[in-house]
Amino acid sequence: MSTSPLRAAMVPVSRQMRVYFAPVNRSTETPTIFDPGVYGAFALDSPPAPWLDLGWIDNFERFYDTPTDVVRSGSGELPAAQFRGPLEARVEFDFREWGKLQMALACGSEHMNVLAPVGSATPAPSGGTPLPGVAVLAGSTASEVVFGAGAVSSFTAGSLIAVDLDYAQQTGYVGSGIAGAYVSNPAAVNNDVNYVRRVTFNVGRVVEVTATAVVLAQPLLAGAPATGASAQTVVAFVDREGGSFFQEWSALFVAEQETGGRVCFYYPRLSPNPGAAAKSSGFSKAGVGSGFVREELVGIKTPLSAISLRAAFLALPSTDPNDGQTVVCYRSYFPAAQAAVY
After folding, report:
1. pTM: predicted TM-score of the whole model, two decimal places
2. Are residues 120 and 104 in the same domain?
3. How far is CA 83 from CA 1, 70, 80, 87, 335, in A?
4. Which of these three, 239, 262, 281, is where a domain ends?
5. Beta pairing class for 172-174 and 181-183
6. Tens-digit pLDDT string for the chain (342 aa)
7. Which of 15, 142, 179, 334 is most buried, judging by how many CB atoms fall within 10 Å of its CB?
8. In sequence order, which residues have a C-beta less than 8 Å from that of residue 193 and are 6 or more positions away?
9. Position 1 in a domain
10. Are 32 and 146 within one domain?
């Protein structure tokens, strides 16, 4: 038996899994590419654009549900060849951090911004009639949004704002940068001029208000606001169980190396599928019924508990450009320095 000291470095050891998501172009179904040869050794706190760091996750599980069968031949019906059935794979895990993207991914359908209401607004579960949008002026960037003297007083330091175009009766995917919803009929959204800002992912936290502009803590995900965009204050985020819209994202899961190498799992196309967990066992994590646990209390120290978000995804197929094969996931391993190859 080999006693090479190199073999110890062949055991990947990690404290936690970290997750990154990036948008899929819904119009072309083009995923965000993770090329391990280009991006594999990136600093976990500074992922390459457009990947978004969604923090540490727990209870990470991957399921490969694609059946494999054999072709039999001869009088003895001996196995002669193998073939794979319909591709199906799933991923499940718990978000330990809450934010707009984490909630949206755990929900899976339209995720909405609750816009600050007018005083006489009729109550609605996803937010009533909001205060009018404030026009965004030329010279705005992803980190500094210009409104002009006077108009900028509509916003305060610490507030959240949604920045996007007015809804103009268009159909199809809406939302700058990342599709937030799909509109099949303008009447379905009541021709609401604010609808795009209700569902947009283009949201930021104001950290400073200057004489004419607001400065954001993080750049807007869609970059500089589009010409004709407006902004509204967001008071909360809300998602719903139900709805007809299915999100789609590219995802990267990274086991940070403590000793040994780094392991990455790249899914070109993941669609949130909260009901998928019930397929694996027929029971919830609580052990009763046939549903799916959406949140869970994780004890810190009595009586304090953290609330985690359970998320489940269905992997959708993608074509590898190198050989045209249909795949759902790539697993890459970056060996530690001087580690044995096998």
Report:
1. 0.89
2. no
3. 37, 6, 10, 11, 32
4. 239
5. antiparallel
6. 455 667 778 888 888 899 999 999 999 999 999 999 999 889 999 999 999 999 999 999 999 888 788 888 888 888 888 888 788 899 999 999 999 999 999 988 999 999 999 987 788 999 999 999 999 999 999 999 999 999 999 999 999 999 999 999 999 999 999 999 999 999 999 999 999 999 999 999 999 999 999 999 999 999 999 999 999 999 999 999 888 899 999 999 999 877 778 999 999 999 998 765 544 444 444 444 455 677 888 888 889 988 999 999 999 999 999 999 999 999 999 998 888 888
7. 179
8. 133, 166, 167, 168
9. no
10. no
Whether residue 231 is found in the same domain as residue 161? yes
* DSSP letter assigned to residue 107: H
- For residue 127, give its domain range: 112-239
Domain contains 342: no
Q: What pLDDT is recorded for position 284?
A: 43
Q: What is the dihedral of CA 80, 86, 92, 98, to 10 degrees?
A: 150
Q: Which residues pair with 23 in a beta bridge?
A: 249
> Encoding tokens for residue 51?
């990947």
**Nearest residue to 93 (alpha-carbon basis) of 309, 255, 251, 270:** 309
Quote the CA–CA distance of 163 and 135 in Å, as a whole number: 9
What total of structural domains would you count in the chain? 2
Give me the count of residues in the chain: 342
Q: Which of 239, 271, 292 is the last residue of a domain?
A: 239
- Distance CA(298)–CA(288), nearest Å, equals 19
Residue 2 lies in a domain: no
State the Cα–Cα distance between residues 101 and 93, nearest whole angstrom.
15
Which tens digits make up the pLDDT trace of 153-184? 999 999 999 999 999 999 999 999 999 999 99
How far apart are alpha carbons 223 and 65 in whole angstroms?
A: 38
Q: What are phi and psi of 310, to 5 degrees?
A: -80, 135
